[in-house]
Amino acid sequence: MPETTQTPDIETPSSSTRIQGGNAPRAELRTPQIRLTVSALGARLCGLDVYDDEGSTSTNVTVGLSDDDAYLAQDSYIGAVCGRYANRIEKSRYRDMHGSEIKLATNEGETHLHGGNDGFDKRLWTISQQSDTSVRFTLTSPDGDQGYPGTMTATATYSVIADNRLRLEMTATCDKTCPINMTSHAYWNLTGKFDHTAADHVLQITADRWIPVDDKLIPLATIKDVSGTGYDFRSPARVSDMLPHATQGFDHNFCLTGDRGSLRQIATLSDPDSGRSMKLFSTEAGLQFYLAQHFNSEMKTETGTALHSNAGIALEPQTYPNSPNRPDFPSPWLKPGETYRHVIEWEFHASQGK
User: Fold this and answer.
1) d(CA 82, CA 106)
2) Disulfide engineering: 181 pairs with which of 24, 76, 85, 104, CB 3.0-4.6 Å?
3) Quick check: is 252 catalytic?
4) In this structure, are residues 68 and 24 in contact, taking their beta carbons and an 8 Å threshold?
């Protein structure tokens, strides 16, 4: 029998890593076509304005809350970088490369979700580098943090690489072998009206397969073809039109075409009414598509708008969920001496098709 590693005390970082009152430091980057605000709390994207074709007015297209207290009070991970492991790990445990069982913090029943009850989204990152075009956040996660082995150093760098294009590059190193899966948990609503549903957006995903889940949202054994299902977004389709045919709703991983590690376009999201659109690029193997269904009127934007329950669409590039327990899935393992790297890019257009 493999040895079991006991982890009775899941380590939580010291209070020096947490907000002690007021808002965390923020930074703003802008071009003639976009303006974004990011926060050291969770290396979080708090707002992204897209300017119209004349550059005279702008519309915020990503969900953000009123202040840091609001972000910490809810569990929606809005705009944050999630880690160490985004998405779910079944029963909050896995066996390491030597067969020893590693127990993680539980925060969704018996499941480990988005790095645990005190994941990267709740940490106060350090602004380690800043310029007119980029800002880098750095975080150290100690050995035993949320049950994970090894001391991990992570970075999240936002940069504008064209007038209408934003890049997020996430890296990590660790002195012990550890699973890693970092992503951005931004919610998008290209109408800019967060008291309205985002389900009328048109979505396209470059994926031929999707992964069904059980009642705990853990991937089932069989990966399925999207053909003939409500999960076929190979051609652009309105989310609300597909929803009645999606037997499990929308909170699933799509198995992307193309080579993992290569930056390629993986999705397009558009709002037919305003004409705004967003192209999504990633180096990862999967994309978690989630139509928000849990927002409520007590959750308010910085302008005081109460969120519609379906106010946002989350498109989270990542490796497949529960991959530490699924050797048939793309590898999540980061070993000492290696550097994890995941690049996400978003390209915004004020008028669809331009």
Assistant:
1) 15
2) 85
3) no
4) yes
Sorted by where each starts, the structural domains of the chain and their CATH numbers stand as 15-203+269-349 (2.70.98.10)
Q: Quick check: is 11 catalytic?
A: no
Residue found by looking up tokens 């139509």 in the block: 291
Note the helical H segments in 21-115.
Answer: 68-73
Q: What is d(CA 228, CA 128) in angstroms, rounded to the nearest whole number? A: 48
State the catalytic residue, choosing from 112, 114, 185, 342: 185
Which stretches of 136-195 are DSSP H helices? none
Rounded Cα distance, 286 and 208, in Å? 11
Given the residues 284, 316, 345, 347, select the one marked as catalytic: 316
* Torsions phi, psi for 90 (to 5 deg): -65, 130
Q: Is the dihedral of CA 249, 279, 287, 237 positive or negative?
A: positive
215 burial (CB, 10 Å; 0-12 / 13-18 / 19+) is exposed
DSSP H helices in 80-123: none
| Torsion sign across C-alpha atoms 124, 285, 208, 264 | positive
Q: Which of 335, 332, 325, 331 shows the shortest CA–CA distance to 103?
A: 325
Q: Is the pTM of this model over 0.90?
A: yes
DSSP 245: G
Model confidence over 170-194: pLDDT tens digits? Answer: 999 999 999 999 999 999 999 999 9
CB 167 within 8 A of CB 161: yes
Alpha carbons 266 and 272: distance in angstroms, whole number? 20
| Counts for the chain of helices (H) and strands (E), in that order | 2, 27
